[in-house]
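Quick question: what would this complex look like in 3D?
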Amino acid sequence: MRKALPLGLSLGLLLAVSAQAQTVSSDPLPPKPEHWSFEGPFGTYDRGELQRGFQVYKEVCSACHSLNRVSFHDLGDAGGLGFTDAQVKALALSYKVPAGPNDKGETTDANGTPLTRPGIPADHFPPPFANEQAARASNNGALPPDLSLIVKAREGGPQYVYSIVTGDSTKAPAGFHLTANKYYDPYFPGRNISMPPPLSKGQVTFNDGTPNDVASEAHNVVAFLSWASEPKMDERKQLGFGVMAFLLLLSGLLFLSYRRVWHGEH
Amino acid sequence: MSGPSTYVPKTGFTRWLDSRLPILRFANDTMTSFPTPRNLNFWYIFGAVLTFMLGVQIVTGVVLAMHYVPSGDHAFDSVEDIMRNVNYGWLLRYTHMTGASMFFLAVYIHMFRGLYYGSYKAPREVLWILGVLIYLLMMATAFLGYTLPWGQMSFWGATVITNFFSSLDQLIPHLGTAITTWLWGGFAVGDPTLNRFFSLHYLLPFVIAGVVGLHIWALHVPGNNNPLGIDVKGPQDTVPFHPYYTVKDSFYLVLFCIVFFGLVFFAPNLLGNPDNYTPANPLVTPADIVPEWYFLPFYAMLRGVPQKLLGVIIMFGAIATLFFAPWLDTSKVRSARFRPMLKVFFWVLVVDCIVLGYVGANKPDAVLPLSALPIPLVWIGRLGTLYFYGYFWAILPLLGLIERPKPLPASIAQSVLGDRAPAAAPAE
């Protein structure tokens, strides 16, 4: 008892200190436990979800974030959005991609605007800013990261990205020091994020009548970005089942041979 | 054990070849008729698994190199191009990536098996030393290979590891910096570093293959050790390698492949670090620089020492210690089966290495989350390092003197077959 008292006291003090620290903590919260159609060995991408997510990327995210590693024809892949050739072509045509320098060595037209041409399916999504400096100049010095690998490049994957895009509408608690031009997002390391809350209710209208609240918009766009990070996942899992079946059969046959060869020898 | 050859050429051509290049005789004697103890258990399959893994890494690596661009500007992009646009490129890369982990998993089991059954002791000292050399080469190859995707962890991992050499500055001023600059080919990790790392990453596996050849040669002179750790006394103790061990190794190799390809197809990034999907950026240091899991115990040893040079020495000393194991163990008995005290210390060593790995995976200032009184992990790491050294430099030499081994069985055949064992052949 004589020993337990100071121990309990110091423990209580420790808890009190950590509780006080928590109100203004800048440590990130664990990501929201959102579930996905592509989880686990049997999970596959939901084509409708990817198409809606692409719509969100196109209408919202692409204003600031590039998607450099994805080409238009990737959207025609069977294990992804499954657009038809005509759809891919039409989509590519709707984009202006950088085309300079031309055969005279010019990179801009007479008015000084950079040369562009309509996209073809082999082109990649053109970035919203010409370079890093232009991107930072438009975003209070912050660089919006490329989204091609964002889901694979973050601890927590889709849950983390989902938490970030839905999380920064929360108000900062009293006493939290918010840096100038930053927004409070409890899921972001340091809780100071440069990205303003990206999604709002009704911002995107899905033509299949899917609800367009923030949660649904976020869920769809994160599914799309997961596909962008790992476009061969469906193909990979499908081949995996064939390989597993083959290996299991082979191991069964080898086990029978093993038993027979060693019979009576041990 | 590699007794007189039993090969008899059957056709005119093989007789003709045998008197010119007896390669078929060699293959027969080493892979078919080779007398192998009849009591090898599951833990002896990893030699075959490791040979297979070396093959997998070389074949996938050679094809990946056809698509990879070793340049700071293009390395990351070329790897992503392999993942997205090369036919089955994702399969090649994930197999190579997961293959490195499985290679190390197998080598660790193989080494612990050697430690448990005393396979490093006379007359197999050279066999063991060649094995440690292969392990060292594997570590170098894995480190070089991890740099190649040129992600954040590649870049900063390479920076941390190559900076080991700059600790020599504490011994002779400027020496370490000069060596590091020479290794980098510049004043920081950059394009020239990546280029030479690629060249060496392609070279070392073939050096490994060469040393594996010597390792197998050194195995075939004294023959396999076995779980009893006693010598083979005659033909009744052995079976020919083929078909007995070819079929057994094949069966377990396929089970190993089920785990291996299970990871490749269903959790390819499980053992990876997400930071390596962000392109290398010399201006942004990741929050935590963590090596791959198979280096974590050594990372814990390094970080346990506040003085850099000493930390590097302790870390490399741990690997160097393995070379001395054959002479540090003073016991006459090989197998831990008959060494009741060694058995306990051995399993503590296994747990110790796992604990060191756990310490290495956490932040340097982390504390053990289990207890009310927080124990800093760095101290657990220090104790773990002490035990690792203690096992080899104190426990192994002392146990041989104080331990009373259990009685050894008369022969392998006696132990495996019991009453069915044929009487030992009279000495010739």
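Answer marked as accepted. Chain B has a mean pLDDT of 94.
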